[in-house]
Write a structure and sequence with these properties.
This protein has three domains: about 5-170 and about 360-490, no CATH class; about 170-335, no CATH class; about 515-690, Four Helix Bundle (Hemerythrin (Met), subunit A). Helices cover about 70% and strands about 0% of the residues. The protein is built from 28 helices and no strands. Helix 25 runs antiparallel to helix 27. It is globular and about 85 Å long. Pfam families: FUSC_2. Keywords: Cell membrane, Membrane, Transmembrane, Transmembrane helix. Belongs to the YccS/YhfK family. It is a multi-pass membrane protein.
Length: about 700
């Protein structure tokens, strides 16, 4: 994609307003927390202290609106504490420009590195930088700095208390995630009726698994509907694929196919009913014809062999899903004890250090983002105060909130920030100029704007930026800062901050396009491990650890596929030329690995029991898969062609499931080798650009 097209796409994405489900009660609660803190601060202290406390309550509320499975009170307290500490340090260094610039650089580097812990940590860490820049402009002494830090922490405490006292849709996020997983499996069943080779998107399953990872306190208190039912959805997915497969399940035409379509349609209805039950907390309600359809017809089922076994297992799993969703069962306590437990906050420190250590490499997007942020924020601060404009901190604030670890978000947010800031400044500036509201009215207007921002946060960054800008205008107006006198200066500084952020990414980029081969090799390795582990189960059916190894390999495969999908989505809008893996080759490689994973999924639906006789050739099949994927991943990374040795996989076996799976795996490996084989033109371009790779940026595509 050319720079022109990339920028046009960034403008379109940044100004887009999405229709999404609003959460008015949560927005009202967040705004009420800020209102309580501001009212108390105005009553007991000065407007400047009230502004500081409002920033703390605002940031704590923002943390609770981020996508996280942590308890919301914990997020609010962590955000309030982090802001209080950063603000106190900022006040200590604010009197010395050089010291404050150095503090900004170090703190911004740490805030950028926090993205290694996840998007929520990255967003909250960025807020500590922006609040430090804004709040330290309010003059104070050392005791005053302690007071400001205290009221900011108090704002986070109030938000946490309100969440505990007035819970909204308790366990709602976890219910939604689990319901989406069942809805995804239901949609998969419908698509299999018309396309037996339809792919399955694992992202809802991954999200549901993340939501099911609990703290010990959560594990003791979670509703019965959320205990163990996700595992049933996991087991249903391969059974559906096995039933629909023309070679292993129902025949492509005739009575078998019609019966398979009936069962798939009923499965979709049952799974949708289970999803609705989980989302609402009500019992499962099934249509009357469901039970009759699942029962074997009076004249006998037309299904035979593996297809008939899959149909029987599907009926049993659907019944289990309904029972699990309808209420407590005897296995509830065991499910609680066996739940994945999320580490407590104190135990997170070594995990966080390991996550940060993994990103300490020069090609890491997180490290590069941290370096960009640590340079741009101090530079914006110096330029903002050097220019003959008031309130120069507005430029580094804009740079901090615009910069993200990837190209598309950075440029889209830059456009949205400028448009939203312009709208918010014009509206709020006009109110301040012509109405001249007093401190109490300014406080009320700030709370209203913040409530609107919480409400519309997920509709688009431009809308949220407009509400946030108006909030800051009224809040600083309450503290006596004349925001209504120089709207033009704020617009120019916003433009400067956004331009600095965009220029920083262009000068020091992290292009996903050039890393696609690494992502593809990782995905191939994970897919090969999953397929090999499932195949090995047929050689060692009595091995008690087989299910755990298959499960771990499946999770690794899903993570690698999600990383690939995200990388391709980012690369699609980047203004750089591909390096040996064109968009067409990427699509073909994705199809090949999806086919390979399907082979493993079909085998997973028919895993042998522990007392089943072992299949000796399965061991050789598993070793062949491991060898082929290892050589293929190495060739992909080295940009060289590879020819997998598939003679072992093409040997005959008496087991129909194993025969079908090995056929698909061999076909997938051949398709992958053809997809990533570099053409003569690509090789010449790669060799010609190798000498100058470090001296010039990649040439945009024509």
């Amino acid at each position: 994609m050319t720079w022109q097209r990339s920028l046009r796409e960034a403008v379109r994405s940044g100004l887009a307003v999405e229709r999404t489900r609003l959460e008015p009660l949560a927005a009202l609660r967040g705004a009420a927390g800020v209102a309580v803190v501001v009212a108390l601060a105005l009553w007991l202290t000065t407007p400047a202290f009230a502004a500081s406390s409002a920033f703390g309550a605002f940031a704590a509320g923002m943390a609770t609106f981020q996508r996280s499975w942590r308890p919301r009170p914990v997020l609010a307290l962590a955000a309030g504490g982090g802001l209080a500490f950063s603000t106190f340090l900022g006040y200590l260094a604010a009197g010395h420009t050089a010291a404050f610039v150095a503090l900004l650089a170090v703190w911004s580097l740490g805030a950028g590195t926090a993205w290694a812990l996840g998007p929520t940590s990255g967003v909250v860490a960025s807020l500590t930088v922006t609040v430090m820049l804004v709040v330290v402009t309010l003059p104070t002494s050392l005791p005053g700095a302690l007071g400001h830090a205290g009221v900011i922490a108090f704002g986070g405490l109030v938000q946490a208390a309100l969440i505990v006292v007035f819970p909204i849709r308790r366990w709602g996020a976890q219910r939604d995630a689990l319901a989406e997983a069942f809805a995804a499996v239901a949609d998969y069943a419908r698509r299999l009726r018309h396309d037996p080779m339809a792919p399955f998107d694992p992202e809802p399953m991954m999200t549901a698994r993340s939501a099911a990872t609990l703290s010990p306190r959560q594990a003791r208190r979670r509703p019965a509907q959320l205990r163990g039912v996700r595992a049933v959805a996991e087991r249903i997915r391969p059974v559906l694929a096995s039933l629909a497969d023309p070679a292993l399940g129902a025949a492509a035409d005739g009575p078998e196919r019609e019966r398979a379509r009936q069962l798939l349609a009923v499965a979709a209805e049952v799974l949708d009913a289970v999803a609705h039950s989980i989302r609402t907390g009500r019992p499962v309600r099934l249509p009357g014809q469901v039970a009759a359809t699942l029962e074997e017809p009076e004249g006998g089922s037309p299904l035979r062999g593996p297809a008939r076994r899959a149909a029987g297992r599907l009926a049993a799993l659907l019944e289990e899903a309904v029972e699990e969703a309808n209420g407590p069962s005897a296995a509830d306590q065991a499910a609680v004890q066996g739940a994945l437990l999320r580490p407590t906050v104190p135990k997170l420190l070594p995990l966080a250090l390991r996550a940060v250590r993994r990103e300490l490499r020069w090609d890491s997007p997180v490290l590069r983002h941290a370096v960009r942020l640590s340079v741009v924020t101090p530079l914006g601060y110096v330029l903002g105060w050097a220019l003959p404009l008031g309130h120069g901190y507005w430029a580094p604030v804009t740079s901090t909130v615009v910069l993200r670890p990837d190209f598309s978000q950075t440029y889209a947010r830059g456009v949205a920030r400028f448009a939203g800031t312009l709208a918010g400044l014009l509206v709020a500036g006009a109110v301040m100029r012509f109405a001249a509201p007093g401190p109490l009215v300014c406080a009320g207007l700030a709370v209203v704007c913040l409530g609107l921002m919480y409400l519309l946060l997920r509709t688009g960054y431009a809308v949220a930026s407009a509400c946030l800008t108006a909030y800051v205008v009224f809040l600083l107006g309450m503290a006596g800062v004349g925001w209504h006198e120089a709207v033009t200066d704020r617009v120019l500084l916003t433009l400067l901050g956004g331009a600095l952020a965009m220029a920083a990414y262009a000068v020091f980029p992290t292009w996903e396009t050039t890393r696609l081969r690494e992502r593809l090799a990782d995905w191939l390795e994970a897919t090969g491990r999953y397929a090999a582990e499932v195949v090995a189960c047929y050689a060692h059916p009595a091995d008690r650890r087989r299910h755990r190894r298959v499960r771990e390999a499946l999770l690794e495969f899903r993570s690698a596929r999600l990383a690939w999908d995200q990388a391709v989505g980012r690369a699609r809008v980047e203004p750089v030329r591909h390096r040996g893996l064109s968009p067409r080759a990427s699509e073909l490689a994705k199809d090949a690995l999806t086919l390979m994973a399907r082979g493993g999924m079909l085998l997973e639906a028919h895993l042998p029991s522990r007392d089943a006789p072992p299949i000796p050739e399965a061991d050789a099949f598993a070793q062949a898969v491991r060898a082929a994927t290892a050589s293929g991943s190495a060739a992909i990374r080295q940009r060289s062609p590879f020819q997998p040795s598939l003679s072992t996989l093409r040997q005959r076996t008496a087991d129909p499931a194993l025969a079908r799976a090995t056929e698909l795996i061999a076909e997938a490996l051949e398709d992958l080798a053809n997809a990533v084989r570099p053409s003569a033109t690509a090789v010449r371009e790669e060799r010609g650009s190798g000498a100058a790779r470090g001296k010039r940026r990649p040439t945009p595509e024509a």
